[in-house]
Amino acid sequence: MTETLLNRAMTLAETHGLRGYDAVQLAAACEINVFCAAHGLPPLTLVSADRELNTAATGEGLLVDDPNAHP
Description:
The protein has helices at 3-16, 20-38, 51-59, and strands at 45-47, 63-65. By secondary structure, it is mostly helical. It has one domain (3-69). Strands 1-2 form a two-stranded parallel ribbon. Strand 1, helix 3 (51-59) and strand 2 form a beta-alpha-beta unit. Helix 1 crosses helix 2 (20-38). It starts with a helix and ends in a 6-residue tail after the last strand. The mean pLDDT is 97.
């Protein structure tokens, strides 16, 4: 946990109306996704069944896979 990550989480919580831990999870996923892009790795896919988190993640440019979407 870094100050940068916490600041990003607070911004994401305010922007998307997320709960605290969801905002931290999304902030970490965004940071990892940036790392992947910078190192030529495939983009991160966030796996979550939380609709609000998934909407926010998509809005932040992340790929999302909702396990409830698979029968």
